Amino acid sequence: MRSKWIMAGAVVAAVALGGVHQASAVDTMGVGAQKCRVFLNAIGGSEEKLFMQWILGYLSGLAVERNRDMLKTASLASVKARAVQLCQPDPDEYLDDVLDDF
Questions:
Q1: Judging by DSSP bridges, how do beta strands 20-23 and 26-29 pair with one another?
Q2: Interatomic CA distance for residues 102 and 94, integer angstroms
Q3: Which residues contact 55 (CB under 8 A, 6 or more apart)?
Q4: What are the distances in angstroms from CA 56 to CA 60, 61, 71, 83, 99?
Q5: Distance (Å, whole) CA 62 – CA 64
Q6: Which residue spans within 8-99 are E strands per DSSP?
Q7: pLDDT in tens, 26-74
Q8: By Cβ atoms counted within 10 A, which residue in 60, 78, 82, 96 is the most buried?
Q9: Nearest alpha-carbon partner for 38 in 95, 78, 83, 90
């Protein structure tokens, strides 16, 4: 029973922090469910760390799904630079959608 409450709390927190975005048939939750513009504006601010943690988790999930260790030689700085590079052309794209091209 306790685990159900913990899961419910995690879902509420994720939605409160960033909402939910549906990319194709999959819902994405948390700060990455926002548009690139929000991520780009967070760089250098207090929310940058939260975005980077979300991005690393998302990319780790993609790596498992694709059976390809795309973070093996990456640094935090290089992941951030690539995410910025992917977001800058169209800040109105959703962060999770552009990261699919990582």
A1: antiparallel
A2: 14
A3: 32, 79, 80, 83, 95, 99
A4: 6, 9, 9, 10, 10
A5: 5
A6: 20-23, 26-29
A7: 678 899 999 999 999 999 999 999 999 999 999 999 999 999 988 999 9
A8: 96
A9: 95
State how many domains the chain has: 1
Cut 0.85: pTM above it: no
Residue entry with tokens 């760390």: 49
Those residues with Cβ within 8 angstroms of residue 30's Cβ, 6 or more apart along the chain or in another chain? 14, 17, 18, 54
64-75 confidence digits (pLDDT tens): 999 998 899 999
The single residue listed with the structure tokens 């690539």 is 82
